[in-house]
Design a protein that fits this description.
Elements lengths: L10 H4 L6 E4 L13 E2 L6 E2 L2 H8 L4 H7 L6 H25 L1 E4 L15 E3 L6 E3 L3 H7 L9 H8 L1 H19 L8 H8 L6 H8 L1 H14 L4 H19 L10 H4 L5 H11 L2 E3 L5 E3 L2 H25 L2 H35 L8 H24 L3 H20 L4
Helix pairs in contact: 5-6, 6-7, 7-14, 9-11, 10-11, 10-14, 11-13, 11-14, 13-15, 14-15, 16-17
Length: 412
């Protein structure tokens, strides 16, 4: 076993570090079959056989009764109990990571070495914990991954960028599970993000929405205070989107971002993105955005917020919230490309095609050449008389720029 050092929020200000113990169970190879004990999703009891425990103790629960209605031995029944088992272990692992004490229940355990708790992440499809280095392989074959049979997705996950994005999505799911529905503002987040944000109506909407605040808190933890301006921008973009949704005709009651990230509101989100990014039709009949970068950033932010909502729903055992988050993520993966991303790509492509490239004037080039030659002669005399690093560095940079300019204009 190992000891995991956990530094709580604000520990640097208090000059103290608290020590907790988080253990990762290790697989013990024996002659008998390794029978792992799992955690119940509803009563948190450690049991040996999840199907038998669910049938005896929780048969009246709607989620369990829906699985029990399937025929014995069918694939649907096995998959249903597998999902309930993984959700129970996921809920237990989140509690362990939150308290900083206990044993993580991982899907694949090492038989030779003890791993660190930070080396394990949950699968975004089945919620089972795997090592960072093996997670992408599991995603390709996960029985709950609806895109596992598509070649394009397989290629995307197998490359390095796909593996990094796979781990990033899992980290975001885990961060959402560790958050609370009503977040408590940390002094660092309040000082670097909220207090420095421009005080207007958009700031009030951003600071008043719990999911937007949670999103900013996660970004601050990942990016650090030096990226506080970027975090403020992402939060304000979501707030402007909320304003556009609530200002539309037919909206009787203001919606929060948590309520908005549901399958039934996906079309409303698309229309709001079109209004915020100022969708129009050009002379050729193509749809273009006046602000294509805003639409692209909103797509990334909304997906991350939906993953945070999914983690929060699992933590609270809220089946309705979980179904809403999964529905929005499914529609985002299926329809966002056609409705928003393709329009952004066309807008950027047309702007590059129609951009006027101004060539430098001959008089300006003559002035630049004259300055380079005269300054290089002056620095050469200085370096020859008293060799120093600063003039030598400037001379080398001027020589490089002179060679570059000579390469562009060989007649010089």
């Amino acid at each position: 076993m190992y000891t995991h050092v956990y530094e709580p929020e604000g520990a640097q200000d208090l000059f103290c570090v608290l020590f907790f113990t988080v253990l990762v169970d290790v697989c013990q190879r024996t002659g008998k079959r390794d029978r792992s004990r799992n955690h119940c999703y509803f009563c948190d009891e450690v049991v040996l056989q999840i199907p038998r425990h669910m049938a005896r103790q929780h048969s009246v629960v709607p989620e369990v009764s829906a699985v029990l209605c399937k025929g014995k031995g069918t694939k649907e029944r096995k998959m249903g109990f597998l999902r309930l088992r993984n959700l129970g272990n996921f809920k237990h692992n989140v509690a362990v990571l939150e308290t900083g004490s206990g044993t993580l229940h991982v899907c694949k355990r090492s038989s030779t070495k003890h791993a660190d708790a930070e080396d394990y992440l949950p699968c975004v499809h089945c919620f089972a914990f795997y090592g960072r280095g093996q997670l992408w392989r599991h995603v390709l074959k996960c029985p709950f991954n609806e895109n596992k049979g598509k070649t394009s997705d397989d290629v995307r996950v197998q490359n390095k960028a796909g593996r990094v994005s796979c781990c990033a999505a899992s980290e975001l799911l885990l961060d959402g599970s560790l958050l609370r529905e009503s977040p408590e503002l940390s002094p660092e987040f309040k000082a670097f993000v909220l207090d420095r944000m421009h005080k207007d109506r958009v700031r009030s909407v951003a600071s008043g929405d719990p999911l937007v605040v949670n999103f900013g808190t996660v970004l601050l933890k990942r990016l650090g205070p030096h990226r506080a301006v970027d975090i403020q921008q992402r939060m304000r973009q979501l707030a402007r989107l909320l304003q556009a949704v609530n200002a539309a005709d037919g909206v009787t009651e203001p919606l929060t971002l948590t309520q908005l990230l549901a399958g039934r509101h996906f079309d409303t989100v698309i229309e709001a993105v079109h209004r915020v990014a100022e969708l129009s039709v050009d002379s050729t009949g193509r749809r273009v955005y006046r602000k294509p970068s805003l639409a692209g950033k909103l797509g990334h932010s909304l997906k991350k917020c939906a993953q945070l909502k999914l983690g929060l729903a699992i933590r609270q055992s809220d089946l309705v919230m979980e179904q809403e988050a999964n529905a929005f993520l499914y529609l985002h993966n299926a329809d966002w490309q056609d409705n928003v991303t393709s329009v952004c790509s066309v807008t950027v492509k047309l702007s590059k095609m129609n951009k006027v490239v101004e060539l430098p004037d001959r008089n300006d080039l003559d002035k630049l050449k004259h300055y380079q030659v005269s300054r290089m002669q002056q620095l050469t005399r200085i370096v020859a008389e008293s060799p120093q690093y600063a003039p030598w560095r400037e001379l080398s940079e001027l020589a490089l720029s002179r060679l570059t300019l000579f390469k562009q204009a060989p007649r010089w």
